[in-house]
Specification:
Order of helices and strands: HHHHHH
Largest sheet: none
Oligomer: single chain
Helix content: 55-70%
Structural class: mainly alpha
Shape: globular
Low-confidence stretches: none
Radius of gyration: 15 Å
Number of helices: 6
Number of strands: 0
């Protein structure tokens, strides 16, 4: 099975975070494809806490913020408002 270029980029990002290789993380961000970082990046970065812990995740977010962040979340990625939660029950 061959990974797509998008999947290879996500593997690169997650590996850099796991290794604490912040220069590689910056490089991966700088070489991101059109429209990236996107929702897939945000989800992949968030899930790294399962394997590397919150301190490294927080550091990764700080590094990524320095180089432009992870893009704007889509409306369904954000925390619902109190009104929306009440309507959902």
């Amino acid at each position: 099975m061959t990974l797509s270029s998008t999947d290879r980029a996500l593997v690169r990002v997650c590996t850099a975070i796991a290794l604490g290789d912040w220069d590689e993380l910056r490089a991966a961000h700088g070489q991101a494809g059109p429209g990236e970082p996107d929702r897939a990046w945000r989800e992949a970065v968030l899930q790294t806490h399962l394997f590397v812990g919150f301190p490294r995740l927080v550091e990764a977010y700080a590094v990524l913020e320095q180089v432009g962040g992870l893009g704007s979340p889509e409306s369904d990625e954000e925390e619902p408002s109190e009104r929306q939660r009440a309507a959902r029950g």
